[in-house]
Amino acid sequence: MSFKEQILEGIPNELPQPKPFDHSLNHAPKRKDILNDEEKKLALKNALRYFDKKHHATLLPEFKNELDTYGRIYMYRLRPDYKMYARPIEEYPAKSKQAAAIMLMIQNNLDYAVAQHPHELITYGGNGAVFSNWAQYRLTMKYLAEMTDEQTLVMYSGHPMGLFPSHIEAPRVVVTNGMMIPNYSKPDDWEKFNALGVTQYGQMTAGSYMYIGPQGIVHGTTITVLNGFRKIKKQPKGNLFVTSGLGGMSGAQPKAGNIAGCITVCAEVNPKITQVRLDQGWIDEKITDVNELVTRVKKAKAEKETISIAYLGNVVDVWETFDKENIHIDLGSDQTSLHNPWAGGYYPAGLSFEDANTMMANQPDLFKEKVQESLRRQAKAINKHTAKGTYFFDYGNAFLLEASRAGADVMATNATLGREFKYPSYVQDIMGPMCFDYGFGPFRWVCASGKPEDLAKTDEIACQVLEEIMQHSPEEIQQQMADNIQWIKGAQENKLVVGSQARILYADAEGRMKIAEAFNQAIKNNEIGPVILGRDHHDVSGTDSPYRETSNIYDGSRFTADMAIHNVIGDSFRGATWVSIHNGGGVGWGEVINGGFGMVLDGTKEASTRLKQMLFWDVNNGIARRSWARNDEAIFAIKRAMQTEPNLKVTLPNIVDDDLLNSI
Q1: Is the pTM of this model over 0.85?
Q2: Is the CATH number of domain 214-409 3.40.50.10730?
Q3: 178 labelled ligand-binding
Q4: Which GO terms describe its molecular function (predicted)?
């Protein structure tokens, strides 16, 4: 069967032959055995409802074996035979160009070069899933191939609920992931209900079909590293950034370090993903012996090199050894998936990768003890370095949160609301006040033609637009504009593309709208093919996350999620092609609500109208909330937005005199 025929087939009438387990790929760890016998029967019933009754006797023992072996039912037999990658949009069987664009993005999320665990449909973060099983994938792609511009596909935590009558201005797809009743949103709830096949962890851009490989966070990481060095009044050249994690998004760290111009040491325990990053050119060198690492870093410091080094081993050993060897760390952080500490997001020191995976599945309580012991050790070593002058920041991966729960010495001496920890979140001191409060966040686009020359043309267009805007920009945002112009000019030479022909840069509402309008005009003029707009959920408006995106909100509202819900509702009726809202992502299940969107530009007048309506709201919704929290930069930004758009009227805060408060 051809590719198009397989898509249109959906779940086949006759079962394909079972597929051998491919040991060469990076696979998800075995999940813990959390279901009782009756719940396991329920999980099997839930899986079999995708199939004609005539197949149940064949599939039942197979699915039971998957559940017993892996802790989940992935339906490996249903994996398609065709290569998984983002094809040019014309190659998809579709009645709706918007639906074809979504198919392209789904396949990009599952591309072997992009996805962390492709056979388990996990894109990044250890558990960030596009779907829970391959039947869901097949059925979703079939629905998208069949749908018209007067239907909307409803996605229920990976499950395609179905096509519903709609209208051309409505979203083509509405996605929810993990939207649990609050009292059922603890880590073990994810394990249980995911094993039952009724919900999933969509991470941020994984379950919303908008992941573009490590590039998606390279830019944000580059800005963070650059501004981190600015904060300590040092140049990156010859100075050291130490962190950990090479899977999924955190693979961006060494590339960002190279772009910033520093020495980067990034520890990773998984040999397969380390080799992938080396082969992809995202790291320069791989070292397996910590003493050899010490020698290499000393040489790099002496010669003021710009280099990224992966240490295949545990980051705790790096922090402890560098302390003993008096290697000064200028910037320090951590980007292991500590939102998922008990199921492969963090590997404890003192155990091999293989032994840790075995203990994780078979002795989960002991594994948890080992993780918490390791976090205490890591925090202790970090404290020794910060006493010597290291600037350490939490990189929004829940490191400080989980370390505090483990009893580590990470709490502030004089804690205040929003400043509970000894070290800041990078959003609190860098990204929040410098970017998000001004409305700058990770705007991204994908060239649906799949042509590198289209991407090069869009880079050129975006750069021209930003340079024109910068000529009239206020002083307060000149640094952001300059950083982004420099970024986009170097985007091609930095070889950031993994998977789809995609790009990301930080822009405010004005920048996003003007860039998008310029793209739409270029499409109309047949200079480029269709373009898919999106953004990271890690942005100004889409995410309520008290320990990351909204950690610099100090009015007590950082534990509310109104903004994220408002954002996705507003995007839905202002013209987004698809929208998503998730529980969990980045910092963990139950710790964040986050939303995203996708928008297809096709050169039409209608697309021009939609992009202006939606992108303005998508940014200014968040600035309004941040200004109400009394963030000075956001007050400046929303006042500026109201001056340019007369129909925008936002409630502004009145500032209370602290001396008056202190007098009572």
Answers
A1: yes
A2: yes
A3: no
A4: urocanate hydratase activity
